[in-house]
Structures are given as structure tokens and as C-alpha cells.
Design goal:
The protein has helices spanning 44-57, 73-80, 83-89, 98-107, 125-138, 147-152, and strands spanning 4-13, 18-28, 31-42, 65-70, 113-117. It is globular and about 45 Å long. By secondary structure, it is α/β, with parallel strands linked by helices. The chain has one domain (4-155): 2-Layer Sandwich (Nucleotidyltransferase, domain 5). A hairpin with a 4-residue loop joins strand 1 and strand 2 (18-28). Strands 3-2-1-4-5 form a five-stranded mixed beta sheet.
Length: 159
């Protein structure tokens, strides 16, 4: 079997919108890396999508297959059910998080990236760890502004 990178992601926002964060676990062979970040004011969907983006951006070998395990139906269905293709054709008219979807499209490779939905807050240890990382990051005192959320707040649908 061809080696692949295993990515687990989660996002969180308290209040939605409110303070938020993302958590990532990357695994490849015997290597493991955890990443997280927090924002002062954002949404859960933005953090779910941002976690996937940051994880994919951190992959240095683009020849490897990547399996992304994510508990966000918003993210997984947008990709697997081809909603994203339709949104792109309409110029993302009336869609939320356009800045993040455009960033995602720059790194997304449908031939190499596979998206698998997992039930959140269940018996998946890696998803639970990502949730812990995301929540902890959202509570840090040094969180930053989610510029994309703030810039588009008045011009987007609630997500």
C-alpha cells in the first residue's frame, strides 16, 4: 500500500461567532505533529475549514496521498458532494467564507486529497485531540483577529 499522510482536523467557536480556534494532528509513518491557533472573533465553520487549509499547506511532499479526517459536514460535503465546484462556477455568490475557499482551492488536489467525515465528540481519539487543541487555542490570551471574517462580516451569509 502506498504511504499516505493522515490529517485530523477540528474547529471550534464559543458563541459562534465568538472566540475560536483550530486543532490539527498530522501523522506520517512514525512521525506525529500537532498544530493549533486561536482567533478573537470567528465562526465554527471558518475554523473547521481553516484547520484543513493549514494542515494541507503544511504538507511538504505534494506527491503523497493525503487522507483528511474531519467532523465538519460543511467542509467534507462541500468537497465530496461537489458543492464547491458549483459555488466556484457562480463566483461564490451569496456564499460564506469565500476567502478561505479560494485559499483552499489553491492547494487542493482531488487526485491526492481524500476527505473522510468522522463523527465529532465520539470515540475517535485523534478527533477528540483536535477538539482539545481547538478549544484550548480559542481560550489563549494572545489570539489574533480573523481578518477574513471581519472584512466580510457585513457581506456574507451567516455560517
Amino acid at each position: 500500500m502506498e504511504p499516505f499522510i493522515e490529517i485530523h482536523t477540528d474547529g471550534a467557536a464559543s458563541g459562534n461567532p465568538g472566540p475560536g480556534g483550530y486543532g490539527i494532528v498530522l501523522k506520517f509513518k512514525h512521525h506525529r505533529k500537532e498544530m493549533s491557533g486561536g482567533f478573537k472573533h470567528t465562526t465554527n465553520n471558518r475554523m473547521e475549514l481553516l484547520a484543513v487549509i493549514i494542515a494541507l499547506e503544511s504538507v511538504s511532499n505534494n506527491d503523497l496521498h493525503v487522507k483528511v479526517f474531519c467532523d465538519s459536514k460543511y467542509v467534507v460535503d462541500a468537497i465530496n458532494l461537489k458543492w464547491l465546484q458549483g459555488w466556484r462556477k457562480t463566483g461564490f455568490k451569496n456564499k460564506a467564507n469565500v476567502d478561505l475557499w479560494l485559499r483552499f482551492l489553491k492547494i487542493y488536489n482531488p487526485k491526492k486529497h481524500e476527505f473522510i467525515w468522522v463523527k465529532g465528540h465520539a470515540s475517535n481519539p485523534e478527533n477528540n485531540r483536535c477538539d482539545e487543541l481547538a478549544v484550548a487555542a480559542s481560550k489563549q490570551p494572545n489570539t489574533v483577529e480573523d481578518i477574513g471574517y471581519d472584512a466580510n462580516r457585513n457581506n456574507r451569509l451567516l455560517d
